[in-house]
Amino acid sequence: MERDEFERDMADELAFHIEARTQDLIHAGVPEEEARRRARLEFGGVTTWKERCRETRSFRPLDELRADLRYAIRTLAKSPAFTLAAVLSLAIGIGVNTAIFSLIDAFSFRPMDVPDEGRVTRLFTTSPQDNEGTFSWPEYQEFSRQARTFSGMVALGGRGARMQRPDGTFELLLINTVSENFFRVLGVGAAEGRLFPTENAAALSEHPVVALGYDFWQRRYGGDPSVVGRQIRLEGGNGQVLLTVCGIVPRTFHGIESSADRDLWAPPETWAALHGRNELEDRTFRWFVALGRIKPGASFPTASAEMSTIASRLAASWPDGNRARSARAISDLAYRLEKTRGPGVVFLAVVLLVLVMSAVNVANLLMARAAARGQELSIRTAIGANRGRIIRQMLTESALLGGGGLLAGIAIGWVLIRALPSIIGGVPGYQMELFHAVLDVRVFAFAAALTLATTVFFGLAPALSASRSDLNALLRRGGDDRPGGRFPGRQILVGAQVAMSLTLLAVTSVLIASFVRTRTADLGIARGEQLALFCGVENARQVRAAASRLRALPGVADVGFAIRAPLSVDEQGWAARVSFPERPEIGKDAPLEIRYNAIDSNFLRVLGTPVLRGRGFSEADQTTGPPTVLISQTMARRYWPGHDPVGATFRIGSRGVEHRVIGVVRDVTFNAIDQLPEPYMYLPWFRGDYGEATFIVRTNLPAERLADTARRSLIGIDPRLDPMNITTENELIRFSGLEHRLAAELLSILGFIGLALTAIGLYGVVGWSVTRRTREIGIRIALGASRRETLALVLRQTAIVGGVGVLAGVPLALAATKAVSSLLFGTNPWDAGMFALAIAVLAAVLLAAGFIPARRARRIDPMAALRVE
Amino acid sequence: MTHEADLLPGTLDLLILKAVSLGALHGYGVLLRIQQISGGAFQIEQGALYPALYRLERQGLLETEWGVSDNNRRAKYYRLTAAGRQRLRKETEEWNRTVSAMTAALLTRPREV
After folding, report:
1. Which of A295, A323, A351 lies at the terminal end of a domain, its last residue?
2. Given A24, A264, A748, B7, which is the most exposed site by the fewest CB atoms within 10 A?
3. Mean pLDDT score of chain B, rounded to an integer?
């Protein structure tokens, strides 16, 4: 190598000089030892002159870079603790933040992956009770036909159909029934084939088609493109139907809610072929979500006004179903923001906070190092290293540090984005991914840019400071820790970090407290081992057979069933029109609808929900005699305030069948864990035509261990009884608290990271100041300060920085917990106990971080310390 | 040693060029030649010679060649290039101009102003 040769030649040349001079001196009569010594003395510092010689040559950039890299690696390897802390801070700042932000983003506010998303509009029908109502198929068609401000309007209804597996069992597939124009209006192209060949509507009903969701295509057909054009057999209410696969939906499109994937996408003709036209013709069966794309130039308020105009025309032409109903439009982006504003902003703020904390930490570490290296650099400058060269070397070092942090950050982010969704969990019983999360490139770039800029800036500071720039003055002031020091810059940074950490801890702890509340809250049901199996059933005989077969399984204590289990993951449940003939004022303005569940006689007992007044259903109520109903205590309080409703009658359903109240039941949280109790009714399952049943199996085994046996015994009765969904009531409770859990889990990760960063930061500052004060401490010890006093001296610094940080942090923390109160479930945002806990945890970590350097100070040997300077 | 003068900035290069112009020399030889031709008048820190030699080589004023010294050791010899010779001439002229101007200036008496 040219460079090695240069070094060798230079060494030879200088050695030759000294040797020649020595020989001359010896010839002049100087004794050999003395001659050697004098020759070297006259020559001067060999290292210095070599450095000067090197400077005369400018190496090729690559050589120089290599040399700088080698130098940087050597220096970084010499202080592994610093290097590790800095790289870790960077990696956390970049990786964890990006991953968590991406998850939150995927969970809440990522827009649909369609072109020109800004013009996509959410459409709702509204009633006095419901601001976000859905559409029946005829309603959708009317709105779509009459609207002028939209270039297209689409509808989507999610349902299910069975498909036989190769082993003869049935799998429930989730079908999105969508209007034919769905993909065209949204601008989603097919991954394979076509997303509905729509030029001939008649052909669609003769030869029904279906499109496969990307994940289903991969799962079931291994991504084989030749499946397009083939026929698949599905079973619906009309029996088995052959459908032609017309195309594959692209991977990037998951429908309107990014969290839920559907297996199949089908136009309404396909739905009609599977299940008949009833549900498409029923004007009040509102099972479609509608979206529109507004025309260029049209505004959202205009569109919304037009929707309400059309709604009033519908109310006039179909008073029975549409009286007192209106409609509105809101931009999809605005809707998502509205939905996620509270939690979204909190998460964003926290992610930003942790990002800032990691940047501060890196700055802190580098500044501590800068102070430590001041001496090394002034020596190098003194022996003639040129400043540009030093700056280049420091830059290389910072870049290496930053590059390491970046790589580690990518690795951490990559691992987290894969691991977190499975830790957090999917929808119980469904084989679908809750998250389609990918690392968000923009956030990644932002985090990387911020932390890298910090690294380079603070990494260069010591090199620049060698030239006594303003920065130097700043650093020197910031670095002055001695009594009377002017501007304790680093302490201020750490104090700020303590304050941020307290804020983070306070938010984390109230969220955890709130999450714990969701686990222990009274849901109106007994918490215990209960398996829930959701099946489609053909008739009463079949459901009785299934229940008795399940009851006979070993380990089963009791079995009941209903159309839905509490907290099951689907729509808000069934609701029925209710009227009180002797009290016409109720439901005068708008038809009153009350949610209900159809149950067998055992259901309430199995759930552990007490009948507070009257009695539960008997077998007679289920089959013969006058119709009876059970009502929830909230319904009793609302419609029979101060009276005993048992024995009262009211009418249910569009035909207004009279039902007698036979009992009042404790409120059960049926929909979402944080929902207030609402009026609710229970009807006898056997008197309706529900076609589905969720068996609740109470067991003294862990419920999930029973899942397989239970499923096999149901298939034993009829393969069609194969449960569409098996889960446990505990899972459902867990999932229903998902938002709380997600908030608690993600924020505790961030809280922990913030705490760790603060500890590293404080450790760095105190450790550094002990190094700086070694001489002072040594003198104190020499003058008779006891080791305990020395320890106290150093710990006092920790206490001051920590105390000031905590004081500054309390108002911040109060404001922050107040801001997250919308995420809290039954928890006071200003819970004194939680605050005390957060402060205690922080204090403990700070003391530990201060104690290690303090112990080092205690051990300082006064004599050695005085020799240092 | 107090009678030895410190070198004026820039003069070391000129001395080296002059020394080498009298024949190829190794580094130590350059030192000896300068002491010889200057009558030992200058205090030169010996190591300082080398950065100057390297710089002049870099500027193309000197060329080098490895050879064998009087006592049979491998040594690097410096020789003046054409550019170096030209530079020497130019620098010498400048030096002479400066010196005569300085001399004239310093010899000025009050009446002559």
Report:
1. A323
2. A24
3. 84
Task: Please indicate, yes or no, if residue A78 is contained in any of the structural domains.
Answer: no
d(CA A96, CA A24): 69
> Residue A292: inside a domain, yes or no?
yes
Element (H, E) at B64: strand B62-68
Burial of A41 (0-12, 13-18, 19+ CB in 10 A): exposed
- Domain span at residue B79 reads 5-112
- Using a CB-CB cut-off of 8 Å, the residues of chain A touching B67 are none
Q: How many Cβ atoms are within 10 Å of A609's Cβ, its own excluded?
A: 22
**Which pLDDT value is given to residue A706?**
86
Q: Label each residue of A532-587 as H, E or C.
A: EEEEECCCHHHHHHHHHHHHCCCCEEEEEEECCCCCCCCCCCEEEEEECCCCCCCC
CB contact under 8 A, A52 and B71: no
Tally the domains of chain B: 1
pLDDT tens readout for residues A761-817: 777 667 766 766 777 777 888 787 787 887 787 788 778 888 888 898 889 888 888
CA distances for A848 relative to A54, A497, A799, A839, angstroms: 48, 16, 11, 14
Instruction: Judge if A656 and A768 occupy the same domain.
Output: no
Q: Tell me: do A649 and A723 sit in the same domain.
A: yes
pLDDT of residue A123: 92
Going by C-beta distance under 8 Å and a sequence separation of 6 or more, which residues neighbour residue A297? none
- Per-residue confidence (pLDDT) for residue A163, from 0 to 100: 76
Structural domain of A262: 129-323
Note whether A654 and A794 are same-domain residues: no
Together in a domain, A146 and A44: no
Per-residue CA distances from A559 to A532, A552, A605, A686, A701 (Å): 10, 10, 9, 16, 14
Rg (CA), chain B: 17
CA A4-A6-A8 angle, to 5 degrees, is 70
Contact A19 B73 (CB under 8 A): yes
CATH number of the domain where residue B32 is located? 1.10.10.10
Q: What pLDDT score was predicted for residue A606?
A: 92
Of B28, B51, B66, which has the smallest distance from its Cβ to A17's Cβ? B28
What is the C-alpha to C-alpha distance for residues A849 and A361, in angstroms, rounded to an integer? 14
In a domain, A89, yes or no: no
Domain end (from A700, A733, A766): A733
pLDDT attached to residue A143 = 94
In this complex, the residue of B45, B54, B76 whose CB is nearest that of residue A53 is B54
Same domain, residue pair A362 and A273? no
Taking an 8 Å cut-off on Cβ atoms, the answer to whether B55 and A56 are in contact is yes
Residues A636 and A689 in one domain: yes
Q: Global pTM?
A: 0.58
Beta carbons within 10 angstroms of residue A787's beta carbon: 13
- Cα(A317)–Cα(A779) distance, integer angstroms: 97
Look at residue B39 and tell me whether its pLDDT is greater than 80. yes
Contact of A53 with chain B, judged by CB distance below 8 Å, is answered with yes
Residue of A9, A10, A16 best to disrupt the B interface, most CBs of B under 10 A? A16
> Cβ separation of A56 and B71 shorter than 8 Å?
no
| Cα pseudo-dihedral A684, A689, A691, A693, rounded to 10 | 0
- Looking at the predicted structure, is the pLDDT value of residue B101 above 90? no
Regions of chain A with pLDDT less than 50: 258-259, 427-434, 467-487, 869
Nearest CB neighbour to A12, from listed B55, B71, B74: B74
* Residues A207 and A352 occupy one common structural domain: no
Residue A619: which of A569, A677, A687, A556 has the closest Cα? A687
Q: Dump pLDDT digits (tens) for A399-412.
A: 888 888 888 888 88
Nearest CB neighbour to A13, from listed B45, B55, B76: B76
The total number of structural domains that make up chain A:
4
**Residue A178, strand partner residues:** A156
Residue A79 lies in a domain: no
A46 in contact with chain B, both atoms CB, cutoff 8 A: yes
Asked if the Cβ–Cβ distance from B47 to A13 is below 8 Å, we say no
